[in-house]
Amino acid sequence: MRSLFQRIVLTAFAAGALSACNASDGPASPRSEPAQSPQGPAARPALPAEDMAAPFVLSLRGPEKPPDKGELAIEARLSAPRAMKAPVTIEIVLPKGVKLTEGKEREELAALPEGVTARSFKMELVEGLAAPVKVVVDMRDPGGAFGAHAEQLYPKPEAKLPQPYGKGVPPPPEGRPGAGPSPKRAP
Fold first, then answer.
1. Does residue 125 sit in helix, strand or coil?
2. Percent helix, strand, coil in the chain (nearest 5)?
3. Buried/exposed 11-32: b ≥16 CB within 10 Å, e otherwise
């Protein structure tokens, strides 16, 4: 009887020692578990709003409706909440039948200044606009740490809302499944 008791105690001791070895090989790191407070898990520190903002926002200004022929002037505006020490490229892409008369088709800035940077473009429309004028802005850190890209069209394309049902597809049945016939269809 004594040997059975000794085996049980020895087995329990070995199991306890083995589970302790598997649980932790050293002190817990401070990042392994979030700190608990009486209100719940510790909150992450809030980031400043300036860190959450886009590096720049591109917008285009021009007449509400472009003319069919003649001169068209638009302005590209880059709004930057803070200066960025990264090269910026501003490019205008013209559709067929449009000729740039003032402004540069492609311009490179050594850095993006804080505030609003505006560029004006004047163009001659020979046959109206067959497609929208596109302005593209790219910013790339020379070290490859970050980058930003923006495109805007003038005039803005009309927003097309998706059709709820395709052509020849009937609408879904009324009512909830298993709820019985709808009041409209009741005899």
1. strand
2. 15, 35, 50
3. eeeeeeeeeeeeeeeeeeeeee
Alpha-carbon separation of residue 69 from 60, 76, 125, 129 (angstroms): 20, 21, 5, 8
CA-to-CA separations, 28 to 23, 37, 78, 82, in angstroms, rounded: 10, 18, 49, 41
- Residue pair 93/131 in contact (Cβ under 8 Å)? The answer is no
Query: What six digits make up the tokens of 112?
Result: 């993006």
How confident is the model at residue 157, as a pLDDT?
A: 85
Mean pLDDT of residues grouped by 10 in the chain (187 residues)? 65 64 50 49 57 87 92 96 94 95 97 96 91 96 91 86 63 67 56
pLDDT value for 136: 97
Copy the structure tokens of residue 160.
Answer: 């097309």
* Beta bridge partners of residue 88, listed in sequence order: 109, 139
- Using alpha carbons only, what angle is made at residue 45 by residues 41 and 46, rounded to the nearest 5 degrees? 125
Q: What angle do CA 59, 64, 68 make, to 5 degrees?
A: 115
- Residues 44, 31: Cα–Cα separation, whole Å: 13
